[in-house]
Amino acid sequence: MAHLFAAAPLALAPPVQTVSWLGPFGDKLPRPKYLDGSLAADGGFDPLGFCVNGLPAGMPGTFSAAQPSDSDLKANLMWMREAEIKHSRLAMLAAAGWPLAELWHGGLASALGAPYALEATQGRSPSLLNGHLFDAAPFLVLATLGMIAVELKTLDQVYGLTSTGKTINANGDLVMKSYVPGDLGFDPLGLYDINSMQVPPMIELRMKADPQVRIDWVNFNRKQMEAQEIYHGRAAMIGITGFAVQEFITGQPIVDQTSLFFTPFWEILAPGLASSLAQDLGF
Question: Is 240 helix (H, G, I), strand (E, B) or coil?
């Protein structure tokens, strides 16, 4: 009978949530309790436990206890999400700027009468692996100062000091003020709420009856936008790393190795047609 009593708590325990990082090709593994899906783009992926032991002891957002509390886990999770989204944004800018520098630098330098700065790297973008990164030391200093300013501005958010909860905006509407990792209040085109503005008729009727429905609708669509940014950022971080490694190994600019992606489609369909038409028209 003893074995029955020993098994009873296991039978009554809730099932363990699992996640498969490789889709149908991987076995499902237990999902960490701190990755509960509340954050956008949360796939339950933290095999090295960065959200638990990601920072040196004593730093803000870390903990020293052997069994961290839920608040400790959340603090570390918010810290790591802040880092991820900032790296994502830098990587997206870099993934676009890297090939554009290789494509346009020669033409711009010629038009401005400036020297061709990519000659030392054989047309490759300057980097730690390609070399000559510190030739642009003034710009690097300026960019570093800008990043420091952003970090100082968002420290209160990371430490959980930002006020949250329901409040009333200037129009008298009930709104939910919450902390969102990476939110700097910069959205000049209003893209963050563009999806929530498209409200189905039935949802709109429910909003009029219950203001909480509108808050839930806005939060749901904002989370979708946050997830898209994270997905693109993760792809950009992988992509920019691939640019650097590929150019270092081959010694050729990335735009030359993948010229198909940087060639106008009309040149692919009919090579030389556009130039011949321009000559016929006298351009």
Answer: helix
Token pair for 110: 């010629």
User: What's the pLDDT at 120?
Assistant: 83
Cα separation, 262 vs 100, whole angstroms = 9
Q: Which of 161, 163, 197, 181 is nearest to 41 (CA)?
A: 181
What's this model's pTM, rounded to 2 decimal places? 0.74
The helix, strand and coil proportions of the chain, stated in percent and rounded to the nearest 5, come to 55, 5, 40
Q: Rounded distance, CA 175 to CA 29, Å?
A: 38
Low-confidence ranges of the chain (pLDDT < 50): 1-15, 56-65, 161
Is residue 186 helix, strand or coil?
Answer: coil
Q: How many beta carbons lie within 10 A of that of residue 34, not counting itself?
A: 20
C-alpha to C-alpha distance for 121 and 106, rounded to whole angstroms: 13
Model confidence pLDDT, tens digit, residues 44-74: 888 777 777 655 444 444 444 456 677 777 7
Domain ranges of the chain: 160-260
